[in-house]
Amino acid sequence: MELIFFIEVLAGGLLAGVMYALVALGFVLIYKASGVFNFAQGAMVFFAALTFVSLVERGWNFWLALLVTLVVMVALGIATERVVLRPMVNQPQITLFMATIGLTFVLEGLSQLLWGSQPHGLELGIPDVPMEWLSQKWNVNISQFDIFAAVVAGLLVAVLAVFFQKTRIGRALRAVADDHQAALAVGIPLQHIWAIVWAVAGFVALVAGLMWGVRNGVQFALTFVALKALPVLLIGGFESIPGAILGGLIIGATEKLAEVYFGPMVGGGIESWFAYVVALLFLLVRPEGLFGEKHIDRV
Amino acid sequence: MLYREAGQFKSSYAQDQQIFPILQDRIAVGLLLVFAFFVVPVIGDQYWLGALITPFLIFALAALGLNILTGYAGQLSLGTAAFMAVGAFMAYNFVLRMPWLGIIPSFILAGLCAAAVGIVFGLPSLRIKGFYLAVATLACQFFVLWALQRFGWFTNYSSSGVVTAQQITVFGFAFDTPVRKYLFTLGVVAIMALAAKNLMRSETGRAFMAVRDMDVAASVIGIPMMKTKLLAFAISSFYCGVAGALHAFSYLGTVEPEAYSLDLSFRILFMVIIGGVGSILGSFLGAAFIVLFPIFLNLASGWINVLTGVEVSHAVVSNLEAIIFGALIIFFLIVEPAGLARLWQIAKEKLRLWPFPH
After folding, report:
1. Hey, of B142, B262, B270, B271, which one would you mutate to test binding to chain A, going by the most A CBs within 10 A of its CB?
2. Containing structural domain, residue A195
3. How far is B271 from chain A (nearest CA, A)?
4. Of the listed ranges A51-65, A139-153, B194-208, B288-302, the one predicted with least confidence
5. In this structure, what CATH number is given to the domain that contains residue A216?
6. pLDDT per residue as tens digits for the range A231-252
7. Which of B146, B321, B330 has the CB atom closest to A272's CB atom?
8. pLDDT in the model for residue B107
9. Which residues in chain A touch residue B127, judged by CB atoms under 8 angstroms apart?
10. Structurally, how many domains does chain A consist of?
11. Taking every pair of C-alpha atoms in chain B, what is the biggest distance, in angstroms?
């Protein structure tokens, strides 16, 4: 019985971790390609989910709404590159980071200005209930929707991996990530690449927004999801897509286990900071995260 | 014509080392202080002093604290509000549990507590850098607020988690009206700003800047990395802690964890960016901008209402505020990444030459 409970908690944690990883992916994509730590990712997730759900509630067809939201997110990514990042080429990373905090405010304000601030429910047709055969056979309760989210995340990572490894654009992206100047020198248009990366990040934000929207409803609190994704990045490393997934799993599992087994000892409510402490301990051993690039400092 | 150092000769090292080497600067700062101490309390009304100028000073102090850490020592922190919260709560507890201490020692002790928390959460900075560190400081933000809410001792087991701050009394004199609170705040801020200005010109300040510019090079020339980084965290948190205590005691009048959310950390970070990273003056300019801006926006929505007859709802205004606020930050970063303080420097250069073009 104990063991089954443990497995249940662990599985729930791992699957929640997949959800974190979905958000973390967006961060990684942009950081990899442009060295920008995009704090606005959470706001993008919120914006995407809110746009989609508002369109659906206005009676739009599901797929049409999805398509339109995707177009909006891509346009947003391109606009961000054009308006915010391009004038700031060659600024220190910290300045770009601040700019994305500014962008966060703009997006949060804009989405609520456009669609109102009341929370929405979201349905994708997959109920968030425990899977029957699992609970009957082994008495383990694992939500159907969690499995679905995990599959989506897996698909997304696979698609991104193929995109990065096999396509021409993907190779250009990796070249830019490795060295801006060298990439420019061999004729890769830096600005196009950045626009593409932001568009892809918008797409990832949409997927994450949909998943989180079903889980928690589409509301302002969705922007805080990004804060949950940050420890994932610390563990996985800022530049690594597999790192984001693995980091998500580690964070999700330890967080849930700690909440159940350690939380009652200190009075509960530890999920707001526990992930960060785990990440910090992790960093003491590996300062670049699991798969982050090791930086060699030269004087 | 008026603003130039021509003819002002330095004949001793003491003169050469003055904080404000130019006579006009000294006069201007002196006049400003006289104005702030004697004229503002007379001409300012309750609202202006209590709701605008006092918070401006407090936020400027917090921004100054963050600026020491981020602007001078180069360690990005997103946990400013947590340090302020530590200061506020510890000040409350010192005054509550050791009333014989007096307000000012309590504030200093509260600042030292914040400094201790700062050192603990600054420890990762020895191992990690840049954004990894920034995210790590978020741990401080969440952990401290959680602890303050979870353990009743901090709020003296108040059921709502919100407690009323005690009155500020120094040697039997009660700072109870907005004017008096303003004067108390101003005194503290003026002294601490002066201290910061001096500190940043000292060996410690130079060590901070060396670490900021390149920490490997700094350690090669013999700057102790651990001591310098932890000292930066300690001093910065001390400033933030005192600012937090002032925030609770002379501005809000209550001590509550909700006042020190991540949002406040960001606001103070913005003050530093907009004002100027690595500038004492910038902390004040940035704080003034961030405090005044929402008020200006509210006024503007009122004017729009009067001019066009269109009623702008409160929700729309607050959303618009967020949008304009964010856009302005981006705009500032594009146009003047060095902040308002840089504009002042440019103006000074121009003034030196004026009225001649070269």
Report:
1. B142
2. 2-285
3. 11
4. A139-153
5. 1.10.3470
6. 888 888 887 888 888 888 888 8
7. B146
8. 92
9. 283-284, 287
10. 1
11. 67
Contacts of residue B300, defined as CB under 8 A and 6 or more positions apart, other chains included, come to none
DSSP 8-state secondary structure symbol assigned to residue A262 = I
Q: What residues in B contact A93, CB-CB < 8 Å? A: 130-131
In a domain, A70, yes or no: yes
Percent of chain B scored above 90 by pLDDT? 33
* Burial of B104 per CB tally in 10 Å (0-12, 13-18, 19+): middle
Contacts of A263 in chain B (CB under 8 A): none
Interface contact flag, A109 B329, Cβ < 8 Å? no
pLDDT band of B284, cuts 50, 70, 90: very high
Q: Is residue A46 part of a domain?
A: yes
Q: Which residue in this structure is represented by tokens 């995109």?
A: A163
Give dist(CA B185, CA B287) in Å, integer: 15
What are the tens digits of pLDDT across the range B27-80? 888 999 998 888 888 887 888 888 888 999 999 999 999 999 998 998 888 889
Whether residue A171 lies inside any domain: the answer is yes
Weakly modelled stretches of chain A, pLDDT under 70:
1, 124-142, 267-268, 292-293, 295, 297, 299
Sign of CA dihedral B88, B92, B97, B102: positive
Chain A residues closer than 8 Å to B215 by CB = 297
Q: Which residue has the tokens 């997304």?
A: A156
Is residue A297, in this structure, part of any structural domain at all? Answer: no
DSSP 8-state secondary structure symbol assigned to residue A128: -
What's the pLDDT score for residue B175?
Answer: 82
Tokens of A296: 């060699």
Q: Which residues of B touch A (CB under 8 A)?
A: 76, 124, 127-132, 134-136, 138-139, 142-143, 145-146, 149-150, 214-217, 220, 262, 266, 269-270, 273, 315-316, 319-323, 325-330, 333-334, 337
H-run or E-run covering B319? helix B314-335
Give the distance from residue A232's alpha carbon to the nearest chain B alpha carbon, in angstroms. 10
pLDDT in tens, B115-169: 999 999 888 888 887 777 887 788 888 889 888 888 878 877 877 777 887 777 7
